[in-house]
Amino acid sequence: MLNAARLDFDGRMDWSKVTNATEFTSYDISATEEIVPRSQGMDIVMNKEFPIPGDIIRALPPSVKLIAEAGTGYNNIDLDACRERGIAICNVPEYTTEAMGDYAITLVMALSCSLAPQMKALAKGDRTYMHQCHLGHLDHFEIRGKTYGIIGGLGYIASNISKKALQLGMKVIVSDMPSTPLGMRDSGVEVVTLDDLLKKSDFISPMVPLNKHTKGLLNSECFDKMKPSAYVINTARGPIVDQDALIDALRKKKLELKTIFASFLFEPYGLTSMNICRLLSWEVCMLD
Prior knowledge:
The chain is built from 14 helices and nine strands. It has helices at residues 4-7, 16-21, 35-38, 54-58, 79-85, 97-112, 115-123, 128-132, 156-167, 194-200, 220-225, 243-251, 260-264, 273-287; strands at 44-47, 66-69, 88-90, 147-151, 171-175, 183-184, 190-191, 203-206, 231-232. Helix 11 links the parallel strand 8 and strand 9 (231-232). Residues 259-288 have low confidence and may be disordered.
């Protein structure tokens, strides 16, 4: 295990099933240059979200037959290099399914009552909203009857989000592969085209893995089709949303600022420090 501390962050990890099955060597943290020497004589390399680039994979010893990603996403591993070396990859598709569903719905509820702006105001000692007993220009609305659009919405985590959203009285529409039949499912979820999802949704979540096909999936064309009042909740990988296109849409007021909250401030994975600063500057500028 290259970076056990990333997985066992609270010290409660039970490795007994692994140690009972095989000889197990664990490192809390590994630097990139330590991966190859630490893999000498190993059959399996276990990893948690740490980037393993192609040059490292090509340099792994012949003994390595499997890279086990201890999470859902495996975009941190160079797949082409693994194919070249004949090294298999496995992941944990249902990892944090419940937690991610709770997370997305929590963000929906927080956005519906402008929780973040209220907290920010209180942190600065501003009790205006409390004294006037209403939120003024801030959003505050019922989520029952609102439409939640989930891109790639038939997977494990997405289906869990759908179930929770339906229980709250929301309408759920999802898009999937072009070959997927459109229409209502027994679960209460309606499969629609991506265009229809973008046009109709009040909340939009991309629930797809990050790869060469999904990087920048939510781009300027998508933002043009969204309602100006739409919220984008990205609990998947950050680069699925085209950062520059989002910033451009905000500047041109194609989208209201609200679209930014969950999309990037809660998922910094893959963002450059420059773009984080640009996004944060927009929040401060427009909220204040």
